[in-house]
Amino acid sequence: MGSFFGQLFRISTFGESHGGAVGVVVEGCPPGFEISLDEIQAELDRRKPGQSKIVTARGEPDTAEIVSGVFEGKSIGTPICIVVRNKDARASDYERWKDIYRPSHADYTYDAKYGIRNWSGGGRASARETIGRVAAGAIAKRILKERLGVEVISWVSRVQNIEARIDGGSVTLADVESNIVRCPDQTVAEKMIELIKGVKSQGDSVGGTVDCVARGVPAGLGDPVFDKLEADLAKAMLSLPASKAFEIGSGMEGTYLKGSEHNDRFVNKNGQVGTTTNRSGGVQGGISNGETIHLRIGFKPVATILMPQQTVNNRGEETELLPRGRHDPCVLPRAVPMVEAMVALVLCDHYLRQLAIRPEGAPLTAWPLSTA
Amino acid sequence: MGSFFGQLFRISTFGESHGGAVGVVVEGCPPGFEISLDEIQAELDRRKPGQSKIVTARGEPDTAEIVSGVFEGKSIGTPICIVVRNKDARASDYERWKDIYRPSHADYTYDAKYGIRNWSGGGRASARETIGRVAAGAIAKRILKERLGVEVISWVSRVQNIEARIDGGSVTLADVESNIVRCPDQTVAEKMIELIKGVKSQGDSVGGTVDCVARGVPAGLGDPVFDKLEADLAKAMLSLPASKAFEIGSGMEGTYLKGSEHNDRFVNKNGQVGTTTNRSGGVQGGISNGETIHLRIGFKPVATILMPQQTVNNRGEETELLPRGRHDPCVLPRAVPMVEAMVALVLCDHYLRQLAIRPEGAPLTAWPLSTA
Amino acid sequence: MGSFFGQLFRISTFGESHGGAVGVVVEGCPPGFEISLDEIQAELDRRKPGQSKIVTARGEPDTAEIVSGVFEGKSIGTPICIVVRNKDARASDYERWKDIYRPSHADYTYDAKYGIRNWSGGGRASARETIGRVAAGAIAKRILKERLGVEVISWVSRVQNIEARIDGGSVTLADVESNIVRCPDQTVAEKMIELIKGVKSQGDSVGGTVDCVARGVPAGLGDPVFDKLEADLAKAMLSLPASKAFEIGSGMEGTYLKGSEHNDRFVNKNGQVGTTTNRSGGVQGGISNGETIHLRIGFKPVATILMPQQTVNNRGEETELLPRGRHDPCVLPRAVPMVEAMVALVLCDHYLRQLAIRPEGAPLTAWPLSTA
Amino acid sequence: MGSFFGQLFRISTFGESHGGAVGVVVEGCPPGFEISLDEIQAELDRRKPGQSKIVTARGEPDTAEIVSGVFEGKSIGTPICIVVRNKDARASDYERWKDIYRPSHADYTYDAKYGIRNWSGGGRASARETIGRVAAGAIAKRILKERLGVEVISWVSRVQNIEARIDGGSVTLADVESNIVRCPDQTVAEKMIELIKGVKSQGDSVGGTVDCVARGVPAGLGDPVFDKLEADLAKAMLSLPASKAFEIGSGMEGTYLKGSEHNDRFVNKNGQVGTTTNRSGGVQGGISNGETIHLRIGFKPVATILMPQQTVNNRGEETELLPRGRHDPCVLPRAVPMVEAMVALVLCDHYLRQLAIRPEGAPLTAWPLSTA
Given CB atoms, is B198 within the 8 Å cutoff of chain A? Predict the structure, then answer.
């Protein structure tokens, strides 16, 4: 059951890194939306390998094909299936490791769970699985933009100890895409790129953080008590490969403050209720409050490194893993579109859920003032 | 749909803080388990208000009644409904605030979402809602213990800037329960208690972190790609009131390391695959690896403070919120049983899910060595 | 997982016939609806035992209590929990049968599934479980009526071989409630009552059919391909105790016709698309077409009879079941409110699902003419 | 949400009749099973058009491709995606009807629901959608056979008024496949074939019934109170195109009997509890009792007929639909594999659900005798 995500705007991904194809089925997409293959492909291109010298060299075009759910360029309310064929699969690179458990990879746990696994590459645990998420996210982004004017923008905020302080209220997609590491601060970006190059040359890897904001989200999205907006966002982020931490709003920093310092004061912003500060990160009691949603994800350094490592095989025998093949020294630049996609999927799902409890025809923003 | 949690071991909570009752329906509890009302009550007592001088004084016995699903002391496979009546409800304390949006509370967002709310207390957003979770968690804990020998133990690891370093491998429930702040390190605990008392006397509040370990979890639990164990744990934690951050294993700290420093080396531990270090936090690729699961949750300072605050009412008018009534200066001590309960619920759900994909009669630990 | 029903308007029932209580949690009820305890109680009274001389004499007031989700008489968007205490439980009546499998009852299958069961009465398999459904159905009916003007009316159309031909387009609730067997045709109703009395005096039981119509359902409800409206209705009906058959529209009769005889011709009915005949039963391709939804359910004769029966006990030993206690000679009159409730729940769920895929603010009836 | 079916063994179908492809994603398939493309193709060939002179002549090879979830011929526990390309799509046949609502088709209701539809063929409402179900069903059948020895066999029991009485206890697949109408009684089959040919020559269509048995199903499958086995079976059957009626066990006939005539007497069958008669149809209280599960589905005559019909277009204007193209005079022969597939999917899902509530390692048949 673990390959389904969302309740009303629901996606189901399929595919292994070296199987025939990876893809996604999107269910619940409202009818009548223009579904642009170009938009979807553009997002996949931001995610794909080989796009720059600081990511893995695996040569995959990641070309998307829409096989259902779209007619004359528009969604028709039926499941949208998008398929991406695996091209540059080098099973041979992996055959030597078929019995070996690579440290901090999922080889062992997949065996422990299923008793069998596709050892030719990361299989289902590979980041290739996220192709389906990114494709579906492109559709969700469009719906959010058209229907609500919502913008979802993500960027690399820290690589190891090189950090950038970015204003989530004004950052643009252009800023993010202006360099290969996807950090809107050019000066910091260059330092990050140098760091990653150095680490790559050592055959090592680094981690860091990705930030994401969603601007223009109307108040009222989120479904207490278990499907709180931050809860679904946290699940979405921790479902991404290599993620180890999640923060919303003031996050861990906020836990050092006192209530009198942390509370966000309410004010009237042109007839809408707003807050002067945003330590809540745009969510209160699990529901969006109309302010910018701001979250942060911590990604560990990639497990694949080009150094010899001691480990065991599937018979429990000690052995040495000899490095080989291609690797990503740092997942962060490619994680950016994945994060945006997952955030958009969560918001789109909760937007549809909110429509379902509103009086027919009532605008999402009718409450609360109009009912006061 | 937001009041359901879990797939196979599924709970559904109901109730507002000042409504007639709060409670839970537990579905999917395997039949034949001894369901001990005493065990359930004991967990509720760890959560209940008025238990010590550093928590709110609201006088609630929080007495649980099991109204279904149990026969002659045992589960029978049908839904177990547990009801707890609200006793000490003082709507009058809240009437003056019925139109006012308390800063960093959910008053405004509930209005924004529903256009109506139970203003007599926190309503559904109150921590009283977690009573149902804690009651259900007591059952989940028992199943995990009886079936798998799993122990779930949580503690307060930091209050504002007062931190305790605890060994998750050896900490015991007795250590945790040895003081009212639920920090296993007595010396640090006293400092925490002093801090909270001081903050309380100022009518202010503080936040901090809670750690939780699950020991003895067999390898194989977790359901990639969306229901990864850490993803479901993150959702569970962020669904708790006042939580703002989640970390598993090395968490944010780990994002400063290189892959060569972060990877956990595999070794043979008496015929089972294990790791020498545990930066993965007991989870790899979304599936438990048999090592101790270790996570951390950041809780913000409670929004309720006994100081005047500027805010607006539901007509958008600026107004001042005058403090009044009872409050929790720090949620952490009472959050401990909530965290344990949610972790137990997630593990129990994934345990049942794992049973469903195993060959009939195959032990959970049969793989992978036996199939090598 | 089997005690949940519905996706957006979702109910979860709990309770055994002789446990502490039975009840329901309703999730997804839109906020701001008047929730009338009287309306709910009125429906429960139509279902309750002891209401006439042709049903079981078990004396249960079936008094409903709303313990959550309602504030100042209105729904607030949170789970509505309704509890009904079991009063007239005579476990002693059943103790003698605790090891015996009553023919065509669920005693054996519950043991086979769970290995344990509440033998004091029908337990979870008792029709008392439907109390929660009927209570929730009362809320669903109100929403359908207020929001869409939909009427759901059910009646007893046949008892064994005594049949009534009723016009589903004009039948009223008053007609149905005008006699204790709930057949709108008074003459036929009297024959049915006589038949049931006769059967009861012999300690035997009879079955028959219940018809149900939903009038005023807008076109567009139903979710192909698996959650077709007729599919969800069929599931709802077959989930009722003693049901063995389901028909929609022309049902089995229609399978004897040719396509040229069966097709419903489309015409323009005051600007709306309608049909001249209604063999489709108001549903085409799994979606409502605006015509009256008409379905029929076949109920077998109740398994409880006051005659000695040969059977086996839980050790597989042949034994004789000696009759004792109270019994319902015919479930049909009490099944009427159950059927209405389940139909209302299905329609209400699909109404909310339809809202979720509509453009914000678009009326349900905007399509298709307005977009032509 | 309507394109998902099942809880643990869950399928999600996608595709329109004239879109790029149709297919299915199977989630929850236990790992380690041999997945035979030949077996899957064989089932698709039983369903495909053009297979005989009494079905539509549309020339579709319906060739299946497995693109994920299988490694070295075995399931690996990840989603299995199967894709079938549409080849013989003649949109031109349909262009003339793009604005016209064909009587008793889903053209109008799809417009009413979605405001847009793929008019080039039946779109999502076409029976081509069932390709995904049949492919997934082939996998479910194999699991049921290997794990439990269950056989699922379906046949055409009646075409209009030509009926065959078949013994569900002994009928074989070979009997069913011995003629093109799939009725095990050769003499009756010939009459059916003649009837269909005659109807086809008139450009008309006929309906009838399909019966299905599942033999060897262990006691204990089914999940009261809403996911009763017969409830899920009824939903599965009514989700098939053109189905209008469902019966289990004695069905409608049984509603004419008295309880004393209808009850199935329990006896000891070689240490297992069994019944002398099977009016319950293998299910009691929503749970399988170990006897043969027997159900019947009524299919209306196909809506597509080659005769002129009066109807309206999407502007509400009266118009005449002129016949054209290919059509199925009778869906029954092709419905047989669809019915088997859906029954297998329901049983496989409930088998996995049952595993989840059993003590680890306990055989499905351990209860009740062993615990008595």
Answer: no
